[in-house]
Design brief:
Blueprint (H helix, E strand, L loop, with lengths): L1 E4 L2 E4 L6 H8 L22 E4 L2 E4 L10 E3 L3 H15 L17 H8 L23 E3 L9 H9 L5 E3 L8 E3 L15 H5 L5 E3 L14 H35 L2 E7 L8 E7 L2 E6 L12 H5 L14 E4 L2 E4 L2 H19 L4 E4 L6 H15 L4 E2 L7 H10 L9 H6 L2 E5 L3 H4 L1 H13 L3 E5 L5 H5 L2 E3 L6 H14 L5 H7 E2 L1 H7 L5 H8 L3 H13 L3 E5 L1 H4 L4 H14 L9 E4 L6 H6 L6 E2 L3 E2 L3 H11 L11 H9 L5 E5 L3 H4 L3 H10 L2 E6 L11 E4 L8 E4 L4 E5 L12 H11 L9 H11 L17 E2 L24 E2 L18 E6 L15 H6 L5 E3 L1 H7 L5 E7 L3 E8 L7 E5 L27 E11 L22 H5 L9 H10 L1
Parallel strand pairs: 1-5, 15-16, 15-25, 17-18, 17-21, 18-19, 20-31, 21-22, 25-26, 26-27, 32-36, 33-35
Antiparallel strand pairs: 1-2, 3-4, 3-5, 6-9, 7-8, 10-11, 11-12, 13-14, 13-27, 23-24, 28-29, 29-30, 32-37, 33-36, 34-35, 34-37
Helix pairs in contact: 8-27, 9-27, 9-28, 10-21, 15-18, 15-19, 15-21, 24-26
Bound molecules: iron/sulfur cluster (3 copies) and FE2/S2 (inorganic) cluster (FES).
């Protein structure tokens, strides 16, 4: 297909927009409102070109075979200029004293591109105040060009539906919830709108007065300078004024550092540039991350207060009685090595245990397991995937072979149907959730949500149902049986690709619709509807998380999910498959890189003599053959007196492990406990030595996200005080124990990993440079697999396996004494217990404490209101919290977010576990509730987004602008004159 563009023939791509074609070829045409990740908005009119002699917006026109396009005819040029002149009527060009004058301001750059000297339509301020009510960003209506990018991003990409422009108003502006202050709106502070704003109308507050050389001047001085600019413009023109501002902009380059990193919070794996001036974080700017593009959530965009927090550990600490004293690195490391050696000599290597951090890098997990195995001689090695992800991995190991997501986030966006089970995706994996929300809102994707709680995704779903807690396996099996019984299964796929079909079908016999309906408390019609929707969908992705895995049947339910996908042929194709959503930024990577009791890196079995021999040869040691203790077993072994010492880094074990009182008790019994941390965590209380580590922004390495995506992070800042990157500390400990390691950079560690790990054979730092990524398995030649199963499944015969799973009663069931079921999980604003996120003031302001959600029914029954203090008591402990009455929970269900170190929900959870993986059954907790009589304010302040009232609309709705009486398409006038002449 060809078009004639400015007289030349050009090949076009199917569905290509003219503006994309023009940009691809490198022709300069202004386009202010167009952003490739948002699609055409068509509000600015600056991209007018002639198509077949008619003026058209290049962003809103799809290139078609035979088209004749002229981008710089006198008419097109005049139309572009007229459109841009209107923009300047809304925006004052005070670039030299603007914090957005950093070379990437679209308004500035377009002024320069069009060589604008004077404007026809004079600048006119709008009759509104600057809105400073959000702690993270501000809106200046006077600078807003009404391009609508922010609205489009909020409505169609983030899909929070907060922003709109009421085009019918006399003086339109951007509105939050139709006219509320930002700080009291439904805005979740994700930052999409700020990131896409083409000028300074929306800006991070951390930039204000900081980015420029002259932007910190007082308001009156700034106003004075702006007046000078306005004064000289008629005489000098903008050209000269812009030149001055460009000198200032270039000067900024020497002091503003821009470094790419990967988010430290959840497993979505957003990557972005961090702009810094010395240690001040100017802003986080996402643009081209493989997982996120321009997207972030509040944590990735603004949650960096922990980096420069006064609370950072900056010196090693050594216990002295009940307190700690500062020590030198030399003294601390020598003590650690001496005590490890003594304990190993006295009670053997298996009396020591090592816990790696899912917050730290792949290279650091690799070194920790190497220290445990090669230097100490034990496989007592684990990471916190034990607390959440191990059952999902087990379900996939059993059925399809690899313990990783079947495809990429793009596959989830592309699926015909997304089924979410036990995942509060919009809060726990916010950016991934945006892809589902967008596909559902804009592209007709179907959404089914199964959850005991009505979270945001549930409110958006086509079908939402609440199975009784712990019964997901039953309805999944019943739906699968129904699909088989009614000839809806993908028989061809099963015949070709799946073993054990007959045995599996037989195992489903007892899972009738009637049985499922009764046990799960669901109407049969819901089950059949769900079954039919799944069977008929063009590609199904199942997303699940801790609502499934943190049950005593976590592995079996995960297996049932994969069985259902196999039965319906939803593997081996784009837009389909199993997507367990990994919690921490690097929980996938920690396991991938051997921080497990039974696996070397790449899931190579420690019990396999051939594999072991390979590692023995490479590391020049002999290695223990028996799998070691996992986290759960370690706690028992401490109580039993078998485990004497532990080395743990980047993990708040005493609060995030289930049955926290029992865990704390164990940690206090250790003979020697080393904790490597960035803050004095609750777990540090039990330590003998505390080693100050560096957070993600202060080191290099790689993280692996939920979609098996390996990404590099670069060092943004120097380590604070005497803190050090974890890989350096682990190496120092190893070397004091005689290891003789000589790694000078994490890249060298990865070379060793790649050489020993077929799954990562082709991973190199060069192949991961900048924003480049690889999704494992990575072959030696560097080819990776965004879609995991293309040619075969990961079993010797290349076929997947149906894996029958029975159902059993959940543990810790409610009874007359403990009559309520307690659910728990994350909140959008905080990550887990909040050790890092509480250090960001704005987050603390919006979400200061934990609380317990109570249903209106239960509230009525017990006389509870929002703000009432209640005490929850389980069979294992008690906590106090304030109630929030909400329909998110139902009947006798309670929900308590994890964001507390004082009243941690895990003081209530039990030591019951998933049978196959020992993952704690956090979600099987029964409690009794006592109303304490005191009533305080709503624990969620007025500024929390939950109090807002979104205003959904299809996007910017520019058609409403075009209907305004004062709107005239630029160039129309010219067209008329020419027509008349003709
Ligand atoms: S939710 Fe708030 S921060 Fe996010 S795009 Fe909408 S208005 Fe902007
Ligand atoms: S605030 Fe929104 S409408 Fe105004 S200039 Fe920025 S992106 Fe455009
Ligand atoms: S917390 Fe997760 S969704 Fe939010 S920015 Fe970080 S990686 Fe992205
Ligand atoms: S870029 Fe086409 S109308 Fe704005």
């Amino acid at each position: 297909m060809m078009v004639t563009l400015n007289g030349r023939s050009q090949a076009i791509r199917a569905g290509e927009r003219l503006i994309d074609l023009i940009n691809r070829i490198g022709i300069e045409v202004p386009h202010v409102c167009y952003h490739p990740q948002l699609g055409p908005i068509q509000s600015c009119d600056t991209c007018m070109v002639e198509v077949g002699g008619k003026l058209m917006r290049a962003c809103g026109t799809i290139a078609a075979d035979g088209m004749t396009v002229v981008t710089s005819s006198p008419r097109a040029d005049a139309a572009q200029r007229e459109a841009f002149d209107r923009i300047l009527g809304n925006h004052l060009l005070y670039c030299t004293v603007c914090d957005n004058n950093n070379g990437n301001c679209t308004v500035h750059n377009t002024t320069k591109m069009l060589a604008v000297e004077h404007q026809e339509i004079p600048y006119k301020p709008k009759p509104y105040e600057v809105d400073m009510s959000n702690p993270f960003y501000r809106y200046d209506p006077d600078q807003c060009i009404l391009c609508g990018r922010c609205v489009q991003a909020c409505q169609t990409l983030q899909v929070n539906e907060t922003l709109s422009i009421r085009w019918e108003d006399e003086h339109p502006r951007v509105l939050w919830d139709g006219g509320a202050p930002i700080g009291e709106s439904s805005c979740v502070s994700c930052g999409h709108c700020i990131t896409v704003c083409p000028c300074n109308a929306l800006m991070e507050r951390s930039m204000l007065g900081e980015a420029g050389y002259m932007t910190s001047l007082s308001k009156s001085a700034l106003d004075g300078m702006i007046d000078v600019v306005k004064g000289i413009e008629p005489e000098m023109g903008y050209g000269a004024i812009l030149q001055v501002s460009e000198v200032e902009s270039h000067m900024r380059e020497s002091r503003t550092k821009i470094t790419k990193t990967v988010c430290t919070y959840c497993g979505v794996g957003c990557s972005f540039d961090v702009w810094t001036k010395d240690r001040h974080i100017l802003k986080v700017e996402p643009s081209e991350g493989a997982a996120n593009g321009v997207s972030t959530c509040i944590k990735g965009k603004f949650g960096w207060g922990h980096i420069n927090s006064q609370d950072r550990l900056t010196k090693p600490l050594i216990r002295e009685g009940d307190t700690f004293r500062e020590a030198s690195w030399e003294e601390a490391l020598t003590l650690v090595a001496r005590r490890f050696a003594e304990i190993k000599a006295a009670t053997g290597p298996d009396s020591l245990a090592f816990i790696s951090s899912s917050k730290c890098t792949n290279e650091e997990s690799y070194l920790m397991q190497k220290l445990a195995r090669a230097v100490i001689g034990t496989n007592n090695m684990d990471n916190c995937s034990r607390y959440c992800q191990a059952p999902a991995t087990m379900g996939l190991f059993r059925t399809v072979g690899y313990g990783g997501d079947a495809g990429s986030i793009t596959d989830i966006g592309q699926a015909g149907l997304v089924l979410i089970i036990g995942s509060n995706t919009a809060e726990s994996h916010p950016v991934l959730a945006t892809r589902v929300k967008r596909a559902h809102k804009m592209h007709g994707q179907k959404l089914i949500v199964a959850d005991i709680r009505e979270h945001e995704m549930a409110t958006r779903a086509d079908v939402f149902f609440r199975p009784r807690p712990g019964t997901d396996l039953i309805w999944l099996s019943a739906v699968t049986k129904y699909i088989f019984d009614n000839g809806l299964a993908s028989q061809k796929f099963i015949d070709q690709w799946v073993n054990h079909a007959e045995e599996f079908k037989k195992s489903l016999e007892s899972f009738t619709l009637e049985m499922a309906s009764e046990r799960c408390g669901l109407p049969i019609e819901t089950l059949t509807k769900v079954a039919r929707m799944i069977a008929e969908a063009d590609g199904v992705c199942v997303l699940w998380a801790m609502g499934v895995t943190q049950h005593s049947m976590g592995s079996d339910t995960s297996t049932a999910i994969s069985n259902l996908l196999l039965a319906t042929g939803n593997y081996m194709r784009p837009g389909a498959g199993a997507y367990p959503l990994r919690g921490h930024n690097n929980v996938q990577g920690a396991s991938d890189h051997g921080a497990m009791p039974n696996y070397f890196p790449g899931y190579q079995e420690v019990a396999d003599p051939v594999i072991r021999a390979k590692f023995e040869k490479a590391w020049n040691v002999s290695l223990p053959p028996k799998p070691g203790l996992d986290n759960h077993m370690m706690i028992d072994a401490i109580h039993e007196g078998k485990l004497k010492a532990m080395y743990l880094f980047g993990e708040e074990m005493s609060l995030v492990d289930s049955n926290a009182n029992f865990v704390s008790d164990a940690l206090s019994k250790l003979d020697f406990f080393v904790v490597q941390e960035i803050f004095f965590s609750e777990t540090c209380q039990f330590a003998d030595v505390i080693l100050p580590a560096s957070p993600s922004l202060e080191k290099e390495g790689t993280f692996t996200s939920t979609e098996r995506r390996i990404q590099r992070l670069y060092q943004v800042l120097e380590p604070l005080g005497e803190s050090r990157p974890d890989w350096i500390i682990i190496q120092d400990v190893a070397n004091r124990l005689g290891a003789g390691w000589k790694y000078e950079h994490p890249a060298q560690i990865y070379e060793e990993i790649a050489a020993l790990t077929p799954l990562m054979a082709g991973v190199t730092y060069e192949r991961l440079e900048g924003y480049k990524t690889l999704q494992w398995p990575v072959a030696e030649d560097g080819s990776d697999q965004p879609l995991l199963y293309t040619k075969e499944f990961h079993f010797p015969d290349g076929k997947a396996r149906f894996y029958p799973v029975p159902w059993s009663e959940p543990t810790d069931q409610p009874n007359a004494e403990y009559d309520l079921h307690l659910n728990n999980g994350r909140l959008l604003e905080h990550f887990h217990e909040g050790n890092m996120t509480y250090r960001t003031e704005g987050i603390r302001e919006k979400t200061p404490c934990t609380f317990v959600e109570v249903s209106p029914q239960l509230a009525d029954e017990r006389g509870i209101q929002t703000g009432s203090w209640v005490q929850l008591t389980s069979r294992y402990g008690k906590v106090r919290a304030q109630a929030v009455i909400t329909t998110r929970v139902h009947g006798k269900e309670l929900y308590m977010p994890m964001n507390s170190t004082d009243e941690a929900v895990n003081r209530l959870t039990s030591s019951h576990t998933d049978k196959a993986t020992h993952t704690p059954a956090y979600k099987e907790t029964s409690v009794q509730l006592r109303v304490l009589g005191e009533i305080g304010d709503d624990p969620l302040p007025r500024t929390n987004s939950r109090h807002g009232h979104p205003t959904p609309q299809t996007g910017v709705e520019v058609e409403r602008k075009w209907k305004r009486k004062d709107y005239r398409q630029p160039g129309e006038h010219l067209v008329q004159i020419q027509t008349l002449k003709a």
